[in-house]
Write a structure and sequence with these properties.
With 146 residues, this protein is mainly alpha-helical. The protein is built from 5 helices and no strands. The two termini are 23 Å apart. The relative contact order is 0.19.
């Protein structure tokens, strides 16, 4: 059950990232107020903080509960490693810049577009996290992947 929930939450995060890149990031560099809550824009942290927190807690519980299952454990450890890499990169690079964009009075569109391109480079880590949790769920269900 915890492995299934971890997979669900990983995929919710992946879907949130796909939405953000395909909808929000296409528009906000031209209209920064879209990502500025004080100007009526979206508050991205309102989605990402609960989404990441829930996933991280469930992932740790799933890892603890399935430690004795080699296939599930390995897949969840891969998911954890990919997610940690994503979060560290985000915490030290992407999030501080996103917060600066949210607070800025003016935003250079070319700098904002560069941020959205670099943000998209995190997608492979989110995808790996998602696929690894799905593999863990499959292993927990007794499916053999290979």
């Amino acid at each position: 059950m915890s492995t299934a929930l971890a997979a669900l939450l990983a995929n919710i995060g992946l879907g949130g990232g796909i939405f953000e890149h395909s909808v929000v990031d296409r528009a906000w560099p031209r209209k920064p107020e879209i990502v500025q809550p004080r100007k009526g824009g979206i508050w991205r942290a309102g989605f990402w903080i609960p989404a990441h927190t829930a996933f991280e807690l469930v992932l740790l519980v799933a890892l603890y509960l399935s430690w004795g299952n080699d296939g599930v454990r390995k897949a969840l450890l891969l998911a954890l490693a990919a997610h940690v890499a994503l979060r560290v990169w985000s915490a030290f690079d992407m999030i501080p810049k996103a917060i600066a964009f949210e607070k800025a009075e003016t935003v250079d569109e070319s700098v904002a577009r560069d941020w959205t391109r670099r943000s998209l480079m995190r997608f492979p880590l989110a995808l790996l996290t998602s696929l690894a949790t799905l593999a863990a769920f499959g292993a927990a269900c007794g499916l053999r992947l290979g």
